[in-house]
Amino acid sequence: MSRSESLAVYLRAQARRRLDRVETRDDGRNARCALALLDAAAYAGSLPEDDPLILMLDQAGCFGPLGCEGFDPGEAGTKLIRQWEGGEPHELLLALPAAIAAAAT
Question: Which domain of life, per UniProt (predicted)?
Fold first, then answer.
């Protein structure tokens, strides 16, 4: 599985997680978040392996120390993804390395 595909699989799983959440009076927030994550997953899945966003995520350690493991953004990246409420898909991917680096300091 390519890194782009691994990232897309991870984002789709997080979208499903948001859809499965039941909260009273969320006013559709979980559904909007899930749609934003599905949009990001579709975008990520279409990126070539040498795309600068994929390379940035690799440098941030999201694909393991050798860059060939499944996508795992760590605790800080997961928190950012789970709180994502929308925006352009590339904005989410650009924000991940900074969130991961900030948590490491």
Answer: Bacteria
